[in-house]
Backbone:
């Protein structure tokens, strides 16, 4: 099983989760993070660290967020690995809890 970064991460891209990952399985895109499913060891350390509740265990991923399982796998293959916490985008708080953010995903 893997953990999945879902829609709430888009345009928030907070990196608190990256600091606690023991296997460095996070990858960074222009406005979102993803988890590489083949590298995730299901330790669950990242999930409680996400300030916007954007990380789910694969088997707890809401039906409406299922597309992110494939997106995480695909984008982790092309985006660079991130291993350290970074400053959040200046407008990240404006995007917290906004619905329908998939349209803003930058690949």
Residues:
């Amino acid at each position: 099983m893997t953990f999945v970064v879902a829609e709430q991460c888009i345009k928030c891209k907070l990196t608190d989760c990256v600091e606690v990952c023991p296997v460095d399985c996070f990858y960074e895109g222009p406005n979102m993070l993803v988890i590489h499913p083949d590298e995730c060891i299901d330790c669950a350390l990242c999930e409680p660290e996400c300030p916007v509740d954007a990380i789910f265990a694969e088997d707890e991923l809401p039906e409406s967020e299922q597309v992110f399982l494939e997106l995480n796998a695909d984008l982790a293959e092309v985006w660079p690995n991130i291993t350290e916490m970074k400053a959040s985008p200046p407008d990240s708080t404006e995007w917290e809890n906004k619905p329908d953010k998939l349209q803003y995903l930058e690949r």
